[in-house]
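Sequence only, no structure available. Ideas?
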Amino acid sequence: MRACDVEVMVTGGTGFIGRWLLAELTRTKAVAAPVRRARQRAAELAAFVDAHGGGSRRLLVVEGDVEATSLGLSERFEQVRDVYHLAARFAFGLGVQEARRCNVEGSLHAAEWALGRPHLRRFVYLGGYPGAPVAGGAHRGDAREPVVPRRECV
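Reply:
I predicted one. Tokens follow.
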């Protein structure tokens, strides 16, 4: 499959929820999954998709990283209409800076990349990182304030 055939992008496709989403989406759609170490992980991910009712022939596993601008992608994926952003890092002892780099800045990179798609229809975000706590247990930022400019999709 080629990048120009892809209509759906899924970040976090190697995670628990992401791999099940890939299996479901590849039943009917051409999907790209940007992952670190794509060459080493592509066969295992394709096998999971096939074993759970998806179609690995509709899956394109590419080198990518949400911590990089443009998701670290070498292709533009101009035909992508739907972006599912599930990439996150959760671990005991994970430092605030490292967590922020992936979970906050990575989410911003994903949203900015999605906004650059000329045919964007939807951006779906699934995450649970609340932000860095400050004194008194409050969190920085106002959850009512949009992080990226709102854009109406046709």
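The two ends are 26 Å apart (CA to CA).
Hope that gets you unstuck.
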